[in-house]
Amino acid sequence: MAYELHYWNGLQGRGEFVRLALEESRAPYIDVARGRAEDGYGENAMLEVMSSKTEPHVPFAPPFLKDGDLIVPHTANILLYLGPKLHLAPKDELRYVVHGLQLTIADMVTEVHDTHHPIATGRYYEEQKDAARARAADFIEHRLPKFMGYFQRVLAQNPNGGGRYMVSDSLTYVDLSMFQLIEGLRYAFPRAMKRFSARYPGLAALHDAVAERPNIAAYLASERRLPFNETGIFRHYPELDKDVR
Question: How much of the chain is in helix, strand and coil states, percent to nearest 5?
Fold first, then answer.
């Protein structure tokens, strides 16, 4: 039975971290909101699950994954569930280290989102531009190097990874998520990320190695890979981007 991934149509967003794991492992899945209504899919099908008055484990928001009757919400939680099934997580207690890194990535993704929506998610970006400029400047100057410096250190100090993997001695879903995080940052802040490879060579090499994996490369070249846009988490507003020393 195919997994059912529920996320907003037209967006990479948080759902993309799950898609990358499913694509790397070639697991059968249905991107429900992108499916046809006549087949029982589409965004309305996703909204029906979220608004259900009878579903005992109704999710608050996408992304969520359906595996048979089980509904698993939240990106990091979905990946914790899928990791062992897709052979993208260690079999021992290190799977919780992977999960912790994924939660740290989730923290950074939230901070990226807040660079363009620092006051209220329900208000348009144009209504909070001044606050966004201040928030983005602080993110670029302080938060981005703090997070990336930490991830670079984790990668370098993994005793079994040989500088290739964040945890353990083989690919895990957090390596795929690091690729996506870097991709998103390069889209949103191309000027700030201009010297990324020189500052964080290990992470840059990890990004490139993930992009070259056959299943990921095929996915990136396919129509299944949606482009970044200004309705997702990673948005490119030139006025929020700046060079860093």
Answer: 55, 5, 40
Residue 65 and residue 5 in contact, taking contact as beta carbons nearer than 8 Å:
yes
Q: Is the pLDDT of residue 213 over 80?
A: yes
Give one DSSP letter per residue of 12-59, joined into a string.
-TTHHHHHHHHHHHT--EEEGGGS-GGGT-SHHHHHHHHT-SS-TT--
Tell me the mean pLDDT in the region 218-231. 96
Annotated domain spans of the chain: 3-85, 94-240
Residues whose CB is less than 8 angstroms from the CB of residue 66 and which lie 6 or more positions away in sequence, other chains included: 3, 4, 6, 49, 72
- Cβ within 8 Å of residue 46, ≥6 positions away: 6, 7, 32, 33, 62
Class of domain 3-85: alpha beta
Task: Note the pLDDT of residue 245.
Answer: 75
Averaged over 36-44, what is the pLDDT? 91
Integer angstrom CA distances of residue 53 from 48, 49, 50, 56: 10, 9, 9, 8
CATH 3.40.190.10 applies to domain 94-240 = no
Q: How far apart are the first and last CA of the chain?
A: 51
Residues 60 and 64: their CA atoms lie apart, in Å, by 9
CB-hemisphere CA count at 13 Å for 171? 19
